Structure to design on (314 residues):
């Protein structure tokens, strides 16, 4: 009897779905690969990619050519004979003013400027953002407003007063003075980023830690910092890119023996003595831009996560 009931139930189910089986496939129709929308989308993306990659391609192939081949005039053709001599000369032999030691000295100057500036500015800004987001105090909104205003003041108008201040305290022309300048100018925008990120974190964690007796630094170091790796990566990429690529502060606040890499690159490219060596100039330009590119490609995924998780919200 049980088998008969099961067969009847199965037959009834088949009879119920027979009309649907005869009606053909259901659901949305698959979109064709060569639709007008896809052609427009991928065409635009391809044009944008070529716009940015073509100059980089020209730089790379030119840096691998000798000067006789460059004088032939075809900048888009790959090198007939690859040579790394322009790279060696750009790094260790190119003249920047009275010095002919290439970009190597400027590279280490840039490292000595970038590393402490990034560490100091991120450390202070993260604490500022944490305090403004979770520890409300009298005048916090005014303090935050002043920081936001500082983020949008053109720093060119403040160069001369800063020169005077650094001269009076004996730091003008030194790497220490430039580190202080970069740390101060990075503070407003980084504080905004950290404050908005900490506001987006679950407040229940903060309140539970307060109930358990955790203090200001315990909550920050044991709860907030481990949860905030994406925004720290965002801040690091922004600071490394901005400080490493800076030219104006480097040429104003340092001296020839402490010039960063960008200033030395300018001196190499704009040199008016001797033959214009385009392959050396291209190699020097690529060498100068390698550090920000490497930092971004290594941590690019965390950068996107930090932006999407609240870095520009609030």
């Amino acid at each position: 009897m049980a088998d008969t009931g099961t067969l009847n139930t199965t037959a009834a189910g088949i009879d119920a779905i027979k009309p649907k089986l005869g009606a053909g496939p259901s659901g949305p129709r698959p979109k064709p690969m060569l639709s007008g929308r896809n052609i427009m989308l991928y065409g635009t993306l391809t044009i944008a990619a070529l716009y940015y990659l073509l100059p980089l391609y020209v730089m790379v192939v030119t840096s691998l050519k000798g000067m006789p081949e460059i004088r032939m005039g075809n900048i888009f053709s790959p090198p007939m004979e690859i040579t790394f001599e322009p790279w060696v000369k750009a790094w260790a032999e190119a003249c920047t003013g009275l010095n002919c030691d290439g970009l190597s000295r400027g590279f280490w100057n840039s490292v000595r400027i970038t590393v402490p500036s990034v560490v100091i500015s991120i450390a202070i800004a993260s604490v500022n953002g944490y305090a403004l987001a979770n520890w409300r105090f009298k005048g916090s909104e005014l303090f935050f407003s002043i920081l936001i205003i500082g983020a949008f003041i053109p720093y060119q108008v403040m160069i001369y007063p800063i020169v005077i201040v650094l001269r009076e305290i004996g730091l003008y022309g030194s790497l220490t003075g430039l580190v202080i300048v970069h740390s101060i100018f990075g503070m407003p925008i980084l504080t905004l980023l950290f404050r908005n990120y900490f506001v987006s974190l679950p407040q229940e964690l903060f309140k539970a830690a307060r109930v358990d007796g955790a203090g200001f630094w315990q909550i920050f170091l044991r709860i907030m910092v481990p949860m905030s790796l994406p925004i720290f990566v965002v801040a690091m990429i922004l600071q490394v890119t901005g400080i490493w690529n800076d030219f104006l502060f480097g040429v104003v606040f340092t001296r020839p023996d402490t010039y960063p890499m960008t200033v030395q690159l300018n001196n190499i490219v704009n040199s008016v003595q001797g033959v214009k060596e385009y392959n050396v100039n291209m190699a020097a330009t690529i060498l100068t831009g390698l550090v920000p590119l490497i930092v971004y490609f290594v941590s690019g995924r965390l950068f996107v996560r930090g932006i999407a998780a609240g870095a520009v919200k609030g």
